[in-house]
Design brief:
With 80 residues, the protein is mostly beta strands. The protein has no helices and 6 strands. The chain is elongated.
């Protein structure tokens, strides 16, 4: 059946069965050595909406959640 531009067949949406989209966010964390053989992930400090880069040597990682699992991906050793 053809419809004029902008005119569509009405749809019933069951909101109880449609999953709501979660707001996605990514954190920047850094893996630093606190003692020989001992490493720790630390969050970068924030100044408003910006991240303040940590001066200690280490590796940066991106961290996010996929359902119940936390994911991390290497992002490099120095901010650009």
């Amino acid at each position: 059946m053809g419809y004029a531009l902008g005119v569509y067949e009405s749809q019933i949406i069951d909101t109880k069965r449609r999953p709501m989209k979660a707001q996605k966010s990514v954190r920047i964390v850094k893996k630093i050595r606190i003692a020989p053989g001992s490493w720790r992930f630390v969050s970068l400090k924030r100044a408003g909406q910006r991240s303040v880069w940590d001066p200690r040597p280490g590796q940066y990682f991106l961290e996010w959640w996929e359902g119940p699992k936390r994911r991390r991906e290497a992002a490099g050793s120095a901010p650009l």
